Every structure is written in structure tokens, then in C-alpha cells.
Amino acid sequence: MTDLGLKSVKIFADGANLPALLELADQPHIAGFTTTPTLMRQSGVSDYEGFARKLLERITDRPISFEVFADEHGEMLRQARLIASWGSNVYVKIPVTDTRGNSTAAVVRELSGSGVHVNVTALMTLSQVEAVTVALAGGCQAVISLFAGRVADTGRDPVPIMKAALETMAPYPQLELLWASPREILNVRQADSLGVHIITVTHDLLKKLVLLGRDLDAFSLETVRMFHNDAVTAGYLL
Length: 238
Known about the structure:
Elements: E1 10-14, H1 18-24, E2 30-34, H2 37-42, H3 48-58, E3 64-67, H4 73-84, E4 90-95, H5 105-113, E5 118-123, H6 126-136, E6 142-146, H7 148-153, H8 159-169, E7 175-179, H9 186-194, E8 198-202, H10 203-206, H11 216-234
Helix pairs in contact: 5-6, 6-8
């Protein structure tokens, strides 16, 4: 990541627009991909498995996360094993609870213990991280997605939670912490400084990665020129 001035954090593209994701697959700084049923619905995806398989045909060398959408734990297990069978680079996203608020730790433990790479998602508290870490402790390589952006949306600073999560997970090197739902490019720098392993970045934010470390005087001048040029182009008179 030296081209972006980052130490170690891996950037995963987050989205469900197939052409856009395939275009991003050609960019070496994109280390992986994630999606959700919500993003897929917003992108007009109607065939869940068909979309996933098209993506996996082109992307075989980087992890891709696809999420179960079952709410009953036994059905979560069935869907997870099916999704995992689509490719060796597949991570299966399991929500931290079902829609009734019941922990899915047992599901996570069974899957990870049987060799399924899971990405436990929608975490927002340290107690959730602690419970999921225990569930994953004896399993294979896995990801814990802590939604720092949504934590920040509530007026709370997510940095202390992310730091504590890293400390909780430290004894288990097969586990990676993912900073989910970033709101600005500053979050990429924050994640990197903390030692967070992965950050997901949406297509809109990916366009702003080129601004990392930008000289502020030059950026200021560019902004002044933009305002001036737009006024001239619009033909404004006073």
C-alpha cells in the first residue's frame, strides 16, 4: 500500500454493481470485496447465486464475502455451506444476531470449526466482539466486521472500540478486524494507524482515495479555481 501512503490496512471494495466491481478487480490496491443483500437489491440484482458466480468467475485471487439471508439458525448453516462451495476465496457473512436479537455464536463456531471462512457482520459493541472472538477461537481464518461508521452515526467515537477489539482479538492471529461503513477517507487513515486489518470502502469513497496525503495549499488553490471557473462558465454578472 505504499502508493497510497498506508502501512498495512487492506482496502476491500464494498458494492454490488457487477461491471464496477470487475473494473475494480484490475486495480492492485483493492485487496478484496464485500457485498450485502441490501446492496445487491439496490443494484437490481435478482439472481443472488448467478450474480455471485459471475463475480467469482473473474475474481479468484482475492477474498469475496457473500451474506446468508436466512433467519433460522439451521437454515443459516445450510446457506453458508452452499455459499462456501462456490469458491475457495469465498467468505460467508453471518450476522452477529438473528432478527430477534439472538446470538449466532453457535452458528459461527460450527462453521468456522468445520473450515468455512466466515465474516461475522453488523457488530457494534465490544461485548459482541468478545463473544464472536470466543466462537472463532478454535476455527480457521475469519473476519470480524465492526460497523465503525454506524457507531459514529450515533455520536460515539468508534476509535476506542476498534482499539479494544484489536486487543481482544490479538491472541488469535487467524482473525482479522474489518472497519465497516466508513464515512470519509480520514477513516482509512485512522484504521491504518490503529492497525486494523481491513477497511471496506464504497465506490464513492474509492474515488477520493487519490486525495490521501494531498498538499493542502494545492488543494485550496484547486478549490478557488473551481469556484471561479464555475462562475465564469455560468456567465454570472453583478
